Amino acid sequence: MNTQLKCKKAEIQDLHKIIELLADDELGRKRERLEDPLPESYIKAFNAIQGDPNNELILAVLAEEIVGVLQITFTPYLTYQGGWRATIEGVRTNKFLRGKGIGTQMIEWAIHLAKERGAHVVQLTTDKQRPEALEFYKRLGFRASHEGLKLHLG
Amino acid sequence: MNTQLKCKKAEIQDLHKIIELLADDELGRKRERLEDPLPESYIKAFNAIQGDPNNELILAVLAEEIVGVLQITFTPYLTYQGGWRATIEGVRTNKFLRGKGIGTQMIEWAIHLAKERGAHVVQLTTDKQRPEALEFYKRLGFRASHEGLKLHLG
Lengths: 154, 154
Description:
The structure is a homodimer of 154-residue chains.
Chain A: E1 6-9, H1 15-23, H2 40-50, E2 55-62, E3 65-76, H3 79-82, E4 84-93, H4 102-116, E5 121-127, H5 131-139, E6 143-152
Parallel strand pairs in A: 4-5
Antiparallel strand pairs in A: 1-2, 2-3, 3-4
């Protein structure tokens, strides 16, 4: 058994396990629908992500098990002299494996990908209801310099 | 003279005026390079934005003058049952025309585009050094539910 943590890009056969991770979360359980088969909307979104060269789903794999997921998006902007940014979203790790460095390794991989793509900044927002996540990102060198605002559409 | 404010999508001939707006800003003046001709990096970024169906540059035009700019990005995510999000970035208005509803009209147009694209949320981050911007977005219905974190890459 391979007990070394690895990162890999997601494939369609990983989708059910990814939605399990997203649903097995304090905020996620109210938002997601973990059914078999999965609601079509997840498959459509997965295909849209995979078909876009500016979006990647990154998985953490331990002993052949998917134990973490995040999405990274690369966006060209005019600001910062036409700089690209990398945005991280939807970070989740298996809740029984917290504190084992899985999140850290995924974020480090995301930072590596962002550098490869020439992004000048890696950015993310974290819900104020997750104070432990805020501390986690600060330890990794992120600065909470911005307010993150949302407007939910009806 | 047409003194009614209009929104339109940016074209390459608008680029110099857009960079003028981005540079004529407390934070922007340290970051941008307003030169004639413009640094190549702006033109490359403009072309990358225009070539991506998930990115739009929106301008506010008053009496044939460009008086505001923002960028909107549409991103597919697995979270929220595979929901799309609209992200607003790089919002600037002519500083001599503050309080005239230009920003409001641009954000309303962005919300309209987000609804057309079926996004479930419109999101943005605003620098904590711009408290007046935070109040502006709150008045438009945005909730500051998240922390916005940045990691600048060397």
